[in-house]
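Weekly sync, protein design subgroup
Attendees: M.S., D.O., the rotation student, P.L. (late)

Item 1: inverse folding check
M.S. brought a backbone from last month's batch and wanted to see whether the design step gives back something sensible before we order anything. D.O. pointed out we never logged the input encoding, so this time it goes straight into the notes. Structure tokens as presented (194 positions):
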């Protein structure tokens, strides 16, 4: 039994460095996604009013001039991708169906990256908390308060990092989910109008 406990202790201690490296990599990825999120939010705010005016004018008129519509203003997010791809594509029903499906997949892919951070960030943070607690308890029993305090600093730091990854990812996911749902409704409407 003692050999099994030693093997488990060694394996869990060996996981600490990969967990810390993965946490740092995920935190950098989260910061990059946050930068993209802020840029997209600024683009949406900047072009939102103009987009709404052009969209309302195009959808309330009796004849829908797609070329004038897509050349009139810049569109953010997956709506912009749809507009750019539609400019160079044929406007057959089959092509429009494929373009709409591609935009649904693009929205799903963008949201999946944040879902990964929501789930895996706190898991890695918890692993980074629990792994150093074993050596910290050993340091406490040996009277080595310096080693114990160092292990506790690692434990609490990884917790904070993992929870911040999850929190930031969740906030971006909530907002982007609404953006993309609205974009997909508009894309389907435009595809029907064409």
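Designed sequence read out in the meeting:
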């Amino acid at each position: 039994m003692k050999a099994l406990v030693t093997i488990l202790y060694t394996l869990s201690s060996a996981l600490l460095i990969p967990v810390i490296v993965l946490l740092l990599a995920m935190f950098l990825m989260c910061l990059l996604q946050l930068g993209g999120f802020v840029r997209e939010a600024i683009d949406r705010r900047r072009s939102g009013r103009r987009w709404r005016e052009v969209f309302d004018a195009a959808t309330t008129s009796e004849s829908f001039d797609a070329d004038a519509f897509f050349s009139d203003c810049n569109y953010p997010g997956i709506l912009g991708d749809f507009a750019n791809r539609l400019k160079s594509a044929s406007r057959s029903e089959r092509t429009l169906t494929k373009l709409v499906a591609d935009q649904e997949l693009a929205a799903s892919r963008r949201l999946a990256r944040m879902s990964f951070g929501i789930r895996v960030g706190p898991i890695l943070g918890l692993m980074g908390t629990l792994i150093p607690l074993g050596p910290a308890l050993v340091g406490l029993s040996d009277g080595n308060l310096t080693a114990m305090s160092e292990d506790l600093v690692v434990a609490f730091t990884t917790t904070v990092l993992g929870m911040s990854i999850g929190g930031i990812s969740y906030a971006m996911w909530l907002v982007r989910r609404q953006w993309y749902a609205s974009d997909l409704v508009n894309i389907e409407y435009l595809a029907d109008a064409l």
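Discussion: Residues 2-193 form one domain. The chain has a mean pLDDT of 85.
Action: P.L. to compare against the previous round before Friday.
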